[in-house]
């Protein structure tokens, strides 16, 4: 709770961000990065600098390092997800301020979803599912229960509790997608490391598993190239349709969306035609 609040204060009063969407996206990215590096420290059971130095000194052994480190803390992360199931999700339904207002005889104040916190919590569980889906199969069951309960709880909250304060227009996905790709890479790389430990670095199993991280990187690059760039733009057709649906008294005029070059060309053609007609009437060349 304190970290998102501090990050929000930083975005508002230090970076002087103006809109709620900018503030939420900024807090979401930094909160997710902090949570992810906390998982990193737990996996390596050392400081961030020491773990990076360990990989830097032995880059060719990164799969073996992850293969030894990630499975050792699988029980902790399994307990972490179970705690989210039994504590974090039910607490979303137990709204202390609303209960206090009802006891005081007043109407509870409306609340909105703190996307920067909720999206981070869901993403971290998904990252753990990607990391441990093969190494610790029990994690699949825990994550399935978590997401099954989360679907029902969040549906109820968005229908009956949360009010719409502003729209992020799906921008949370950009930050989340990078984290999920990193989690998938960590999971497949650790699986490759386990195969290296048990079957040797030159075994067929290692070479077969080595293809998985490459395929994930290709998938991430393809998504960024084909979908990411286009999702950040708005076509003229969509802009026209949105303006046609406006109901705030603004008068729609299709000429607003005519390309300036085409408009100038039309104007020049009209002037040329008028000049030719005038010349013909005067009988000159």
List keywords for this structure.
75% helix, 285 residues, 12 helices, flat, mainly alpha
Summarize the structure in words:
With 285 residues, this protein is mainly α. 75% of the residues lie in helices and 0% in strands. The protein contains twelve helices and no strands. Helix 2 runs parallel beside helix 7 (115-132), helix 5 runs parallel beside helix 8 and helix 7 (115-132) runs antiparallel to helix 8. The longest helix is centred in the middle third of the chain and has 28 residues, at 172-199. The mean pLDDT is 78.
Indicate the percent of residues in helices.
Answer: over 70%
Characterize the overall form: flat
Q: How many individual helices?
A: 12
User: What value does the average pLDDT take?
Assistant: 78
Structural class assignment: mainly alpha
- Oligomeric nature of the chains: single chain
Could you provide a short overview of the structure?
With 285 residues, this protein is mainly alpha-helical.
Which helices and strands appear, and what pairs or packs with what?
Elements: H1 2-14, H2 20-44, H3 48-57, H4 62-69, H5 74-93, H6 96-103, H7 115-132, H8 138-160, H9 172-199, H10 204-231, H11 236-244, H12 260-282
Helix pairs in contact: 1-2, 2-7, 2-9, 4-9, 5-8, 7-8, 7-9, 9-10
């Amino acid at each position: 709770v304190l970290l998102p609040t501090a990050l929000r204060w930083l975005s508002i009063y230090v970076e002087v961000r103006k809109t709620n969407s900018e503030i939420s996206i900024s807090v979401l990215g930094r909160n997710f990065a902090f949570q992810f590096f906390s998982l990193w420290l737990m996996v390596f059971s050392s400081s961030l600098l020491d773990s990076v130095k360990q990989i830097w000194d032995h880059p060719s052994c990164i799969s073996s390092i992850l293969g030894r480190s990630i499975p050792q803390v699988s029980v902790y992360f399994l307990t972490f997800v179970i705690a989210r199931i039994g504590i974090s999700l039910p607490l979303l339904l137990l709204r202390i301020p609303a209960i206090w207002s009802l006891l005081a005889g007043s109407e509870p104040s409306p609340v909105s979803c703190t996307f920067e916190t909720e999206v981070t919590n869901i993403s971290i569980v998904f990252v753990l599912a990607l990391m441990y889906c093969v190494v610790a199969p029990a994690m699949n069951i825990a994550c399935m229960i978590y997401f099954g309960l989360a679907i029902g709880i969040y549906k109820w909250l968005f229908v009956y509790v949360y009010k719409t304060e502003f729209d992020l227009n799906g921008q949370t996905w950009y930050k989340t997608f990078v984290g999920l790709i990193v989690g998938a890479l960590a999971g497949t790389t650790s699986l490759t490391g386990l195969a290296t430990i048990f079957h040797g670095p030159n075994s067929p199993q290692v070479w077969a598993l080595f293809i998985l991280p490459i395929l994930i990187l290709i998938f991430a690059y393809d998504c960024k190239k084909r979908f990411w760039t286009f999702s950040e733009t708005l076509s003229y057709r969509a802009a026209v349709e949105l303006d046609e649906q406006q109901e705030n008294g603004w008068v729609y005029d299709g000429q607003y969306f005519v390309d300036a070059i085409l408009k100038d060309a039309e104007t020049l053609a009209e002037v040329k035609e008028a000049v030719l007609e005038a010349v013909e009437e005067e009988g000159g060349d």
